[in-house]
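Key idea: predict the complex, not the pieces.
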Amino acid sequence: MNIIINGQAENIAGENLSVAKLLALKNVEAPDMVSVQLGGEFVPRADFETAKLKENDTVDFLYFMGGGGGGGL
Amino acid sequence: MDFTDEQLERYSRHIILKNVGVEGQEKICRGRVLIIGAGGLGSPAALYLAAAGVGVIGLVDGDVVDRTNLQRQVIHFTPDLGLPKVESAAAKIRRLNPDVRVHTYHTLALAHNIAGLIKDYDFIIDATDNFPAKFLINDACVLGGKPFSHGGILRFDGQAMTYVPGAACYRCVFTAPPPKDLVPTCAQAGVLGAVAGMLGAIQAAEALKYLTGIGEMLTNRLLIFDALAMNFRTVKMRRNANCPLCGREPRITGLADEARPVCDLKNAKH
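Result:
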């Protein structure tokens, strides 16, 4: 299946692929630290297992970034 | 506003820009920007906004200058160790540009004071280093109808987005703070000092664009960069109908403090 992940065209083997499965395939270790946009819509975290990808979908993984160079960072 | 000859000279490289001109520089000089966090992002943002001649710069920070800050917080110098960051930063701003009025707030931004802090400012810069503060600034700005720039950095990466009323907010992207046990402790993560400079300068540019009304704000887009690859990308987005703050059925209608992580290098070393 051809999809665009984070701006890069990729071919991912498998059908009926869920967002959760894709995160695992892409070695995203902490899915709770990522917000997923699929075809321009944010996927609620509770729907990661049920939201499915289809041919030519665009997926973006947007990571939490909390630093601001203050006391600790 | 009548510029003196000295001011015309000081701001000449802005005034010569065709989109800015005398009119744009006047808007900058009448502008009021609040910077929350006088650290890695706040330092460069404050220096550029001061140099640009922003009329009033407010600085909010409850911390004092620590030796570990000096690797990236470029508004603080070695003799400033132990000084409140807002005082150290205010002193540099005044020396850089006496036209600028600086207001200092030596406090954390919290649910009980944030609405009062932001209310007299035209644009807010989130230069904080923790999620409770980032979500609080978003909520206060959305509920108060104030534009703001979000910035986050980690290791070699940075992200930024700008909110103006009507655009997607931080909670449209990141619904709620991540589980605390997954957030890398400050001491573990680290950050390349220059990455803070890159992002703080982006936030200052957004504030200046907002004040002058030029260009396209970084709204409905998340800018992501990776300084190791030196790759920049913007991801388009739109308002999230399920956003708990600005969606169709808002669940958040007031301000609250989230639990703050322990974020102290001295403790983390033990």
